[in-house]
Amino acid sequence: MNVTITPSSLEGEARAPPSKSYTHRAILAAGYASETTVRDALWSADTQATARAVELFGGSVERRADASLAVEGFDGRPSVPADVIDCDNSGTTMRLVTAAAALADGTSVLTGDESLRSRPQGPLLEAVGDLDGEAFSTRDNGQAPLVVTGPISGGEVAIPGDVSSQYITALLMAGAVTEEGVDVVLETELKSAPYVDITLEVLADFGVEARKTGDGFSVEGGQSYGTTNGEYAVPGDFSSISYPLAAGAIAAADGGSVRITGANPSAQGDTAIVDIVDRMGADVTWDRDAGTIDVSSAPLSGIEVDVEDTPDLLPTIATLGAVADGDTRITNAEHVRYKETDRVSAMAEELGKMGVETTEERDSLTVHGSDSTLSGATVRGRHDHRIIMSLALAGLVAEGETTVEGADHVDVSFPGFFEMLEDLGVALERT
């Protein structure tokens, strides 16, 4: 699907979709448990991949009429899957499920789409081997398809912290049900640290104790998963909130505003987007108790933003920088190159088609707003939900029409994204 966007003024209310990060962890944690109802879950292409994996491990996931998920788990010991585990486009699924597969008494095979088969998995495969399992890439390049054989019993493992925090999440979640537990020693500085904080929060909610140590993280073995009342509620997603928030900051109607609901505080690092938009000059108010954010547009100014802990915000910040006066410099961004696509280069190249001047370095992206004139163009979504949504925002204020190719990939994290824009007053056409 392609979507063509006409410059528009926005006003109204948008509800944040549930958090993708929390939903992934909750579905798998419920899989490790016996029976759990996961409320307010995001039912997207990515989270459905995690649900399928739980089912292949011997559990079941049923989506009810109220959009909750009834999960019957495999009680901490996954069965050997009867089929290949297809993780589709979900890197989170592949990494979390790789460690889960290492618990099974046998061999599992994991694969995904072309994009996922290009993403690095090597450090996690080595970690499984260090824990006395066996894991390898069929192409011997550290990328899927993967073959994983268990069971592991736990132990100590060293792993880099600057490639993906999902490696740590995977090992902690699986480590809780091993005999010995798992001690994770970080070989390098941890990037995206708030995502591990999310993991620790979800584990605690499921009765599992894991902790930070002086050189990494530790989880004791022999633990059982389960919530106190058999239920878990997923909070709103601040990665997704960044889009209506940025849209209001650049395109709210004169005298009007955009209100975002479901914006309750949590461990998500991407709550930083509220401060970023405020620092750039938009009029933004976050009522934490009510879980609402109100934002009105105003002239924006470029700032410097470190995305070491918030990599998913880079595309949104790049679009804000294209509208702002002066330079917006996004730093500590090398790990953002290992997402669904190289998001640093993707935003530089696609915004460049719209007349935006950028300077790309290995670890940073600088957007020269004062040297740019946003003009409508045909841009590629690159099979990446965050690139698509960020380019769509640019189309709200570009001169002329902007067509985003491959726009249906928003289903990965925000299935109702374009409907939300229409509800806020955006004129768009699907082809």
From TrEMBL:
Its EC number is 2.5.1.19. Catalyzes the transfer of the enolpyruvyl moiety of phosphoenolpyruvate (PEP) to the 5-hydroxyl of shikimate-3-phosphate (S3P) to produce enolpyruvyl shikimate-3-phosphate and inorganic phosphate. Residues 367-376 have a biased composition (Polar residues). Residues 358-377 are annotated as: Disordered. Phosphoenolpyruvate binds at residues 20, 91, 119, 166, 343, 386. It catalyses: 3-phosphoshikimate + phosphoenolpyruvate = 5-O-(1-carboxyvinyl)-3-phosphoshikimate + phosphate. The active site is at 312 (proton acceptor). HAMAP family: EPSP_synth (MF_00210). This is 3-phosphoshikimate 1-carboxyvinyltransferase. The keyword Amino-acid biosynthesis applies. Residues 7-421 form the Enolpyruvate transferase domain. Pfam families: EPSP_synthase. The gene is aroA. It is found in: Cytoplasm. GO terms for cellular component: cytoplasm. Monomer. Its main location: cytoplasm.
